[in-house]
UniProtKB/TrEMBL annotation, chain A:
Entry-linked Gene3D superfamilies: MetI-like (1.10.3720.10)
Protein name: Glutathione transport system permease protein GsiC
Primary subcellular site in the record, as a coarse category: membrane
Organism per entry: Pseudaminobacter soli
Membrane topology recorded in Swiss-Prot or TrEMBL: Multi-pass membrane protein
Amino acid sequence: MFLLIGRRLLQSMVTVIAAVTLIFLLFSVIPGTFVSSLAGDKRDIDPKVLERIETELGLNDPLPTRFANYIGNLVRGDLGTSFATQRPVTAVLSARIWASFKLACAAIGFAVIVGLPLGFVAAVKQGTWMDTTAMMTAVSGLSIPAFWFGLLTMYFISLKLGWLPTFGYGNGGFRHLILPALTLGIAPMALLARTSRAAVLETMNADFIRTARSKGNTETRIVVRHMARNAFVLVLTTIGLQFGSMLGGSVVIENLFAWPGIGALLTQSVSMRDIPMVQGCILLIVLFFLVINTLVDIAYLLIDPRIRYR
Amino acid sequence: MSYRHRLKTLLVAAAIAVASPMGASWAQGPIPGGTLHLAAPYGAALKSLDPHVTYNSQDLVVSKAFHRALYTWDSSNNAPALDLAELVSTSEDGKTYTYRLFDNIYFHNGRKLTSDDVIWSYTRIMDPTKGYPGSVQVSTLAGAKEYAEGKAKEISGLKKIDDRTFSMTFNDFVDPGMMFFEAITAILPREEVESGKFLTHPVGLGPFAFVDHVEGSRISGKKFDKYYKQGKPYADAVDFTISGDSSALDMAFRAGELDATVLSENAYVLYKADPELSKGLIEISELFTRHMGFNTEKPPFNDVRVRQAINYAVDRDIIIKKLLKDKAYKATGWLPATSPAFDKERQPYPYDQAKAKALLAEAGYPNGFEFTATVTDGTSSLGVLEAMMPFLKEVGITANAKVVDSNTLVDEMDQGLAAAWFRSAGTGPDPINALRCFDSRVSRPACNRSAFKDTAYDAILDEAAAERDPSKRIDLIKKADGYIFEQAPVWFNNYNKAVVATQPWIHGVDANVTEAAIIEVDSLWLDDNAPGR
């Protein structure tokens, strides 16, 4: 297992370096700079001042110099200072990471709690009305745009029923978390339902299930002990991928629900060409994704001891 | 009904809409207490809590709760008014103003406001390495530019007389109220700004003291007990939800979670049709002019006849009615309807395609031409261009859209790469400042995006700036605006009609033409029906 973690760390470093380099180069070639965002900010600044700001921010330095400075700082754990807020990137990120993590956990929790049983029931009751209903729910969940689903939940649950607040973070309590988590979790829930159904169906006809039946095991025991365990390897991959992408991929939901997460920060920083902030956000998202995937790999070993990594 | 008459009717209706709910409620008198639930409705985050740093409307909305400038915007008179001081004297040449600060003004940290704070704040704004937006205003002070260029150690136009008295000397004859009413020139406590905590824990002179900021979601404040206006603020606390999503804001408003918010075009139509919601609408002709700018240095837009032809070729009435859902006023010049120098007599370019074709033929384009306009995605930019296309096609002009983000748009305009572009320009409240955007001596990045050059026009502006008689000054400004109208360096689209929706339980919402969402929060109060009580 330690070998696996070591190997994963090594691979992750390569991925991080590639991501960081790519983002750096991308922002060097796309039109518009942070200084353009200042001029667009309803103000008309003396061009000489703009030039001074560019110089101070190092935007006029040659590309290799800027890249070397960035990497040098990164190695020291310094992500730089946000052009826009003039605050350390790490401070801004740490103020947002918890909200994003909480939302991602709640959304994946909802997806697992609803999606997995739905998929299992659909597989076990294949061809019945329960299967049809479960799969219709899954297809709907995948095809409904998250933005529209969010508005629907706002309309019915907040506006019509008055059960929950429409939007905002409140004091970070559970009531404000429910609607965005539901909205963010609906697509992964549907995907999990479909994946788990397919995985269970595949294992249902396997030899070891027949053996378990012939040994006189009850159906519940067969489903829980044998089918679920084997199907879970495939399901875990889906959970890992979905969870990993939630940190940066929830922009629409975060904006809709005024949720103070990393996704909304990233889009805002991109539009302002706040390069240190963008790099910080992407680095965090990549790291999160890699950590989750490493954890999933470790979980494979625990669930199915037959799996070996070379 | 003539356009002028219709505009007048609309403005009167807006005034009545504002006055009616307030008038009824003021009969009871303001009731103290409760929490105000407002929106910062132009984006998913605030740019900065330092008011000197940011000129985003989003941040200005919030700054009104925590900070104060020397002047404030008085919506009832549609003009700036002194806020922190009284005017002691004005020099004979009209360039030096002496102020005496009120004796009861305190920062949220408990320290009394002094002349040093005013001088330090304005000097900070001129820091040449920062490019603070307020430097445009402060640079009107004598010696400010010299300070910024490192030729002087202080701004010579700022003089401390005693702890409460100071004077400001300007280079030219200007209205200081127009220069120093926004949060970008707020008076800040030096010790707090330099403490390093100011960016996360702002301290100001405003009616509410900062409590909490959840970045990207909420900022809140509590009533400042030592606020200098007796009895104000009425509310105990204020809570701004930061959200640029108009659908979510609409839902939250309808659910009663917001006391007031600005409306999008689509929401405006729905609210206007609703018998209950329509009662709380405040319509405001804002000081913004939406336009399509032309690069006057390059053909075909270097020819005034081509620029005029486009102004004649498009039926703006139908665009405003159908696309913008009547949430705009047709533009009759650069200065908007609520500008002090708006020329009510001037008629807009009529929709006259025959005239447009004749002008194009005269300019050497009898078969029209093709051009590309740089636009951002959105109804008032790409949407309007797409609505213009069939009208332009009728006169032989093929318009193409190059859709970019706002930063790229700024770059394309500033580098003279764009042939035409769509923008909403702040055109007030100071009309001379607004008209400087066509001054030959002003560079593209500093506002003159069209690179319009006409010394006759510059001379009118200079004459207006030097004129001390208010009515003659206004006449000259109108003349300059008329000149620009004739020269048409832009296609005059519309003046934004901002609409603020208010709940029946909130009172004291003012109609701020500089930006509708900037509400004078110290005057707001909630009656007994408010959920925030």
